[in-house]
Amino acid sequence: MTNHIALFEPLMPANTGNIARTCAGTNTELHLIEPLGFSTDDKYLKRAGLDYWDHVKITYHKNLVDFIESIPDLNQLYLVSKFAKYAYTEVDYSDTNKDHYFLFGKETTGLPEPFMRQYPDKCIRIPQNDDNIRALNLSNSAAIVIYEAVRQQGFPQLETTHLYDNDKLK
């Protein structure tokens, strides 16, 4: 089982770098759907991802169709959008025998509406106050969703570090 974060035509290198760091920390594969709004040699991208790039499996896709065709089971695809019916916490990601794909839209426009209409039951959202903001930051959104998935999966293969011995805290 592998979790996957896919970014549709990302524009901001810092967001992509931060998401790459989250992917490295959660053993999540990263998919970048072209065209990208930056070069992967971009210094901001590398600064945000620091030295984690070697620990992230990155797959590039020529377009959205190419990405969709790469997914073996579309039942495991989730489109993250503020316009979705279901909250991200209402979905069961606990099946560790299947890959889970989380597709995030472009920072400025999100996912294409005609595409989302093809998969209305695959759309999930992070609840937010729309009166105060248009959207949450892309890298924050990716972290929120992927950590819910790995939490439901029991944090597989993730190190748990304890500063103090729990027995001494009682």
TrEMBL record:
GO CC terms of this entry: cytoplasm
Pfam families found in the cross-reference section: SpoU_methylase
Principal EC category: transferase
Record-linked Gene3D superfamilies: 3.40.1280.10
Any GO BP: wobble position ribose methylation
Superkingdom of source: Bacteria
CDD domains to which the protein is assigned, alphabetical: SpoU-like_TrmL
Catalysed reaction equations from the record: 5-carboxymethylaminomethyluridine(34) in tRNA(Leu) + S-adenosyl-L-methionine = 5-carboxymethylaminomethyl-2'-O-methyluridine(34) in tRNA(Leu) + S-adenosyl-L-homocysteine + H(+); cytidine(34) in tRNA + S-adenosyl-L-methionine = 2'-O-methylcytidine(34) in tRNA + S-adenosyl-L-homocysteine + H(+)
InterPro entries associated with the record: Alpha/beta_knot_MTases, SpoU_MeTrfase, TrmL, tRNA_m1G_MTases_N
EC assignment: 2.1.1.207
Intracellular or extracellular location(s): Cytoplasm
Record keyword tRNA processing present: yes
An annotated Gene Ontology molecular function: identical protein binding
Its job: Could methylate the ribose at the nucleotide 34 wobble position in tRNA.
Family: Belongs to the class IV-like SAM-binding methyltransferase superfamily. RNA methyltransferase TrmH family. TrmL subfamily.
Protein known as: Putative tRNA (cytidine(34)-2'-O)-methyltransferase
